[in-house]
Amino acid sequence: MQYWTTSVNPAAWVAMALAVCFLLNIVAVKWYGESEFIMASTKILLLIGLVMLTFITMVGGNPKHDVYGFRNWSHGVMYEYYTDGATGRFLGFFSVMVYAAFSVAGPDLPALAAGEIQNPRWTIPRVVKMTFYRIVGFYVVGVLAVGIICSPRDPRLLSAINAGAAGSNASPWVIGIQNLGIHGLPDLINVLILFSGWSCGNAYLYSSSRTLYSLARDGQAPKFLLKCNSSGVPIYCVLTVSLLSCISFLVADTSAVTVLYWFIDLTTCALIITYTSMVCVFLGWYRALKAQGIDRKTALPFTAPFMPYFSIIAVTIGSLITLFNGFSVFKPFSVQGFITAYFGLAFFVVMFVFWKIYHKTEFVDPATADLYSGKAEIDEECRIWEDGGLEERRKAELAQMHWAKRMWEKMW
């Protein structure tokens, strides 16, 4: 693995990753789904393994037989950032929350893939409900574990960050494992991180191309993007997004960490605006259902709990993070930081206002909103699954499986 990271041109790795993602996205969604399942499984296995490793080592299961427990929390778990005191600790928490938004992108993928999912009214609710538990299990528990195995004040970690070290060299997991005298695992972690990166690229190429295709269908992008191949894949959308992805070659330079932070700032703002906008659309749809006397719990196959209150909270938090995510660029003022932190917000506002003025569109009255166009076609398409006893057959298949395999299947 050391040979891989030092002897191969980084640009070659970027080119190979882009080529693999492109090829996987131009085949039928079945094969894309299978490949994504395999690569995503490596992320799950990696995180489960690291959490288990943390627990085993913290109780003394390490070469040094050091029962370190929660020693790395002895100086506290919240550190100051940008300023001192309670304000500094809050800003430290806030800045971590902004970067967390960059990390947990992806819960919108089931909605984007809805048109290519079999039995969507049964599959999508099952996947969406599991998303919450996956985020809690993999991200929250993972953050808890990494704070246990490696101190945020570890000299090697701070040195790696200050030196702009890339890959696993700056990973607190790897540094914590190495501090315990465990050898060999950092190389394995590097391999799994490679597959994890491929999985992310694969998923976001899919979501970006389908988003572009939807824009073309709505007349908000060129019509040539509607062209699909024999497998139903929007080939020109995939090609366009793949060409734009060539900007990834910037990270092959020696300033890879700087470029990574640019991408994080740009995409974090865009992701938060996207999610906030999605929740705003949901609130508009919720109001339309209520104004037209439609009961969500009886008319829909799945309803999220605590609505619309959680949605209102989500819009509030999303708006605040969007406005204040670049607080650190003002003093001292950084032109580069300001652009990367707020370009997404400016682009969103300009395009929204332009579309409203140029096309003279109006906000829809909830009482007269069209909630039924296209539903008949979807009902007809879903009848093959809903009238064919697919759910009953699936339950019978799960009942015949070994309990371990049944648990694994239910995760997906």
UniProtKB/TrEMBL annotation:
Domain Amino acid permease/ SLC12A intervals: 1-363
Transmembrane segments: 12-32, 44-61, 90-110, 131-149, 188-207, 233-252, 258-285, 306-327, 333-355
GO cellular component, as recorded: membrane
Main location: membrane
GO MF terms, alphabetically ordered: amino acid transmembrane transporter activity
Membrane topology classification: Multi-pass membrane protein
Gene3D superfamilies: Amino acid/polyamine transporter I
Keywords of the record: Membrane, Transmembrane, Transmembrane helix
Keyword RNA-binding attached: no
Subcellular location: Membrane
Membrane found in the keyword field: yes
A Pfam family it matches: AA_permease
This protein's name: Amino acid permease/ SLC12A domain-containing protein
Organism phylogeny: Eukaryota, Fungi, Dikarya, Ascomycota, Pezizomycotina
